[in-house]
Design goal:
By secondary structure, this protein is an alpha/beta fold. Helices cover 34% and strands 12% of the residues. It has an eight-stranded parallel barrel, surrounded by six helices. Helix 5 links the parallel strand 3 and strand 4. Helix 11 packs parallel to helix 12. The longest helix has 19 residues. It is globular, with a radius of gyration of 19 Å. It starts with 70 loop residues before the first strand and ends with a helix.
């Protein structure tokens, strides 16, 4: 996704996963100067304040409740071998489940389409194990990680359709989507991936993103739409200007999640602790819940569950030192690919075997390290 950025995401080529309609692909984004004009920008780049006329039809649903001030999110890796077993062996993560507020699926995982990085973890699998119904029974909200502005869809129209399909797929199979996490639209507007780019300025990307937000909010008023962006690809100052650009158009994100590349931050000599403090302060002042993704961001080459676990715990301790527990704590993996092509690390179960460095064990030990064990 991130993230992917998220799997998705960010500068190392092996980590850029494109949230295409059917299949994800990898590439290497490059910065485009903010002064360069976009090639053939869509007519709607600077959107008006009038109601949207395209996109999914509005649904007869209630407006969302106030966002809780603290949330724990859990996002298993796309192709983790025991993803489905989270729903067939719930006793193996009972304690971790009691700590989790939001279960996050990538959009590829809830489409009935091929997904090379997902292994067998796509819609038919989750329907077969009644994943969405069980999450509802357990009182865990569902979130989806989806694109909004990407170099293959500079208007966001296709991405809106993909997100809508994913939401409706969950609904048709016993679940309800409560959160939609826009996967790095700021990055998507300017990144160059596989020689494709929208070439947008920040203001142009903000305009397209706001249209996406408005159309999503109109069609699904019960869903809270947030934003994930990468650091240090974008500086603190850039992330603040980006958020202000959305606010000025009357559509701030419901929350903001930070996707950090510690390898690049160290290379760039960034003061990560100071930057985390400033971002946390900024979003608090603006009334936008601030979250941090906890993943193996200091070891993108982690080749074992243990290496993933240790790297993520190191990052968690860095964040705890800077700002304590963020309002949103996200345990999410997109490491890969494995030789099979799937993104597999880490294993998810069980939560209580000291010899297994599982994702659910990481949830428990990570939360304990920041005072919510």
């Amino acid at each position: 996704m991130s993230r992917h950025g998220a799997p998705r995401r960010r500068i190392p080529p092996q980590l850029v996963v494109l949230l295409a309609l059917a299949v994800a692909a990898c590439g290497s984004p490059q910065r485009v100067p903010d002064t360069s004009p976009p090639p053939n920008p869509p007519q709607s780049a600077e959107i008006s304040t009038s109601a949207p006329t395209t996109g999914p039809a509005p649904t007869a649903t209630a407006t969302p409740a106030a966002l809780p001030s603290e949330l724990v999110w859990f996002g298993p890796n796309f192709g983790s071998h025991d993803y489905a077993e989270l729903f067939t062996r719930p006793e193996e993560w009972a304690m971790a489940r009691s700590r989790i507020d939001v279960f996050k699926f990538s959009v590829q995982s809830v489409l009935n389409a091929p997904c090379d990085i997902c292994g067998g973890n796509t819609l038919p699998t989750f329907v077969g194990v009644q994943a969405f119904e069980k999450l509802a029974d357990w009182g865990i909200a569902i979130g989806i990680d989806a694109g909004a502005v990407k170099e293959w869809d500079c208007t966001g129209t296709e991405e809106l359709g993909v997100a809508s399909t994913a939401i409706d797929n969950v609904r048709a199979n016993g679940g309800t989507v409560s959160f939609l996490d826009m996967d790095e639209p700021f990055l998507g507007g300017e990144a160059v991936v596989n020689d494709k780019t929208c070439g947008y300025t920040m203001q142009q990307t903000a305009a397209v993103t706001v249209r996406f937000l408005r159309e999503m909010n109109a069609a699904y008023p019960n869903i809270l739409v947030g934003n994930t962006e990468p650091y240090p690809y974008f500086s603190v100052a850039e992330l603040k200007r980006w958020t202000a650009a959305l606010e000025e158009r009357g559509t701030p994100p419901a929350y903001f999640h930070l996707d950090v590349d510690m390898v690049q931050a160290r290379t760039d000599g960034r003061d990560v602790v100071a930057d985390l403090k400033e971002l946390s302060r900024f979003f608090h002042v603006h009334g936008i819940p601030f979250g941090v993704i906890f993943t193996a961001n200091s070891n993108w080459n982690a080749a074992s569950d243990r290496a993933y676990f240790d790297s993520t715990m190191d990052w968690l301790r860095t964040v705890d030192k800077a700002i304590g527990k963020p309002q949103h704590v996200l345990f999410q993996s997109w490491l890969g690919p494995a030789p099979s092509g799937a993104h597999e690390l880490p294993v998810n179960l069980p939560e209580d075997d000291p010899s297994v460095f599982s994702h659910t064990r990481l949830v428990l030990e990570g939360l304990a390290a920041v005072g919510r064990g």
